[in-house]
């Protein structure tokens, strides 16, 4: 089983970095069976919004 764990994604800068790097991570190491991402700060320290979740 292949698992990708992504640490704390903080605010817009963290989301943008992940968007930019995830395709490369997937091409180097993927596919993954399971992905875990810590998104409790994805909305700049205020949890995660529906819009960010959909993104």
Summed up, the domain count is 1
Structural class: alpha+beta
How far is it from the N-terminal to the C-terminal residue, by CA?
A: 26 Å
Average pLDDT figure? 92
Q: Approximately how much helix is present in the residues?
A: 40-55%
Main sheet strand line-up: 1-2
Order of secondary-structure elements: EHEH
Beta strand count: 2
Q: Quaternary state, please?
A: single chain
General description of the model:
By secondary structure, the chain is an alpha+beta fold. The protein has one domain. Helix content is 44%, strand content 15%. It contains two helices and two strands; from the N terminus they run E-H-E-H. Strands 1-2 form a two-stranded parallel sheet. The longest helix is centred in the middle third of the chain and has 19 residues. It is globular, with a radius of gyration of 12 Å. The mean pLDDT is 92.
Looking at this protein, list some descriptive labels:
2 helices, 44% helix, alpha+beta, 55 residues, two-stranded parallel ribbon, globular
List the helices and strands and how they pair.
Elements: E1 3-6, H1 11-29, E2 34-37, H2 50-54
Parallel strand pairs: 1-2
